[in-house]
Amino acid sequence: MDRNQLTGFALLAALLIGYFFYNSHEQKVMMEQKRADSTAHALANPRPKIDSSLAVKAETAPAANDSATEALRKSQPPAYNGTKEIVTLTNKKLSIQFSSKGAYPISANILQYKTYDQKPLYLFNGDGNYLSAILPFDNGRSTAELYFAPVMKDEPNGDKTIDFVADLGNGKRVNIMYTLPADDYMMRCTISLTGMPATAIPITLQTMGLKTEKDITVERGGGSVTQVYYKNKNGDGDYFSLRPEEKTQHDDGTCNWVGFRKQYFSTALISDDGFSRMDLKFAAKTDTAKADSNVIAQYQAKMELPLRAGGTAQTASLKWYIGPNDFNTLKSYKIGMEDMVPLGYGIMAFVKYINRYALIPIFYFLAGFISNYAIIIMLMTIFIRLILSFFTYKSYLSSAKMRVLKPELDALRAKIGDDQQKFSMEQMKLYKSAGVNPLGGCLPMVFQLPILLSMYYMFPSFIEFRQQHFLWCNDLSTYDSVCNFGFSVPFYGDHISLFTLLMTASSLFLAIYNRNMTPQDPNNPMMKYMPFIFPIILMGVFNKMAAALTFYYTFSNILSIAQQFIIQKYFIDEKAIHAQLQENKNKPVTPSKWSQRLEEMQKLQAERAKTPPRINKK
Question: Which of 113, 256, 428, 564 has its CA 20 to 30 A from that of 613?
Fold first, then answer.
């Protein structure tokens, strides 16, 4: 790795680090602005207050021996009195429990997956999860306060349905019907109002996401791990990362779907006719005072749901996705839900196209023949290296030319002395006469960097690596902890990831190997140590990264060492290169516009350095 390669690598690293700090700051400013806009909108458009004192709650029912109160209770509609029941719909993929009070799901067990601890995987579970609607009746009665009678039936095609019926009396009725297909994660929901004319009703969806992975601090970490997504019917959309503090977001567009994404699982509510007046409220849960606390985040969405008129009833059709963040599964619904798999965003959004149209198809193609995903990673790495081998060869050839010219450069340096500007000009002349491009070594890095960034986003987001074993690692989707400290080391963590150590060691070995193969600039000692400092810094950053990612970087480093050894040993003849460079010196040189401009700039800097500063005399 020559000076120009190191310079390019250092600049790219500085750009990346600067981007992460800049993006974090800009996202914070954006969220604060959106929060201010949401607050201003709420003040300008206050929602009507509902008199909760009119609601009849079973939990506060009077004593049975109070005959007058008992007679009043019996005279009320059936939906105001009842007993809470739990009913279940199950197919090949999901088992969903519903509460007859409110007629909404209270738990969702994703059957084909287990938690990291090999327990049943519940995306949500408990009374903090609900879907409710405000009815145009009784001063805004909420469906969460009503008792529904469940009617279950099996469809001929294998689908299973629960029809929740709430009789409000005087010809008024609410039906909430859920249909679970025989083999799908997408549940259908129909809300039907009879005797209550309306064009739209407010609905509220709340979800309490539960821990399913190895490290709850990673799941609660926000950023690209836990997010809220929504997409409008015109194709526009947005996402928001969850933070420890509660955030709100308002949108007046016609939203097609809104989703809550955890690390590898999501729930999304889709409207056939779109939502309007959407208010989102979300926060990551960081309170760990309770030892059994299992909630990672709370998400709430309030929306206006349009109703369709049909005879004596008005209806609304919904779909409810409860399942994994599997790219192909989400893509199959053709409404853009695959965007919930973060394959690149922000200034690095371009890498998601590399993932979608190149790396993911290659991965699935190989997965059709190979069941071991670590082997797939190795084959993908080899395939990418073969594609870039021509540029890699050019890079090593450029390094070899630099080594061949090193004695002449040393002679120039001894002749010129400490005048660095003059030395740079003479160095450029030597390169030009010999036909050497000093930037030739940077070309492979330019082509490899998008691939490295694509893998950086793809591997930690790809559910296919979840709970896949390889060597000592029992889950490639999270870090491979071979030693837990019981305490946290600043800038490192509370454990040792062996793949991260191997990645660091292979990076240092590659740096040493490159140093021995590349001429060093004695006037720039920092460039001598940069290749050794950067891997040490990355060791702390990658210690909590997915083992699939750190294994990929480790194997990529090993391939780089092997590739460089083979090219240097069998494809590069330094004697022939030296003879060719000497021959090039005898050929007339046609300078490029860039080299002419660079030479002019160097001459101008040299003249300015010789001119003494002007002193103003008063």
Answer: 428
| Element at 273 (helix H, strand E) | strand 265-284
AA letter at 246 = E
Bridge partners of 104, per DSSP, are 99
Q: What is the DSSP string of 12-36?
A: HHHHHHHHHHHHHHHHHHHHHHHHH
Rounded to whole angstroms, the Cα distance separating 5 from 530 reads: 11
Q: How many CB atoms lie within 10 A of CB 21?
A: 10
Distance, in Å, from the CA atom of 209 to the CA atom of 242, rounded to the nearest integer, reads: 12
Task: Provide DSSP, 226-263.
Answer: SEEEEEETTS-EEEEE--SS-EEEEE-S-EEEEEEE-S
Please give the Cα distance from 581 to 575 (Å, whole number): 10
Q: At what angle do helices 360-367 and 373-387 cross, to 10 degrees?
A: 130
Please, are residues 305 and 133 in contact by the beta-carbon 8 Å criterion? yes
* Other Cβ atoms closer than 10 A to 464: 20
CA distance 478 to 116: 10
CA dist 190 and 270 (Å) reads 12
Mean pLDDT by 10 residues, the chain (618 residues): 50 55 52 48 42 34 49 66 90 94 94 93 91 88 92 89 91 92 94 90 92 85 74 79 65 82 92 84 60 76 87 88 94 91 84 91 91 93 85 76 74 73 73 67 72 88 91 91 85 88 90 68 60 81 90 91 83 71 64 63 69 58
The Cα 21–Cα 431 span in angstroms is 38
Helices 525-541 and 498-517: crossing angle, nearest 10°? 170
- Encoded tokens for 262: 């955890």
Q: What is the pLDDT of residue 529?
A: 66
Task: Provide the edge-to-edge strand list for the sheet that holds 94-99.
Answer: 86-90, 94-99, 104-114, 120-125
Q: Supply the pLDDT for residue 224.
A: 65
* Domains in the chain: ranges and CATH: 61-342 (2.70.98.90), 356-600 (no CATH)
Whether the CB-CB separation of 194 and 313 falls below 8 Å is answered with yes
* Count of CB atoms situated within 10 Å of the CB of 89: 19
End-to-end CA distance of the chain: 54
* Interatomic CA distance for residues 316 and 307, integer angstroms: 5
What integer pLDDT is reported at residue 33 of this predicted model?
52
For 105, the token pair is 């799901």
Task: Say if CB 377 and CB 551 are below 8 A apart.
Answer: yes
Distances in Å between the alpha carbon of 224 and those of 344, 345, 352? 10, 9, 14
What SS3 string covers 357-390? HHHHHHHHHHHCCCCCHHHHHHHHHHHHHHHCHH
Put residue 151 in one of left, alpha, beta given phi > 0 → left and psi -120 to 50 → alpha: beta
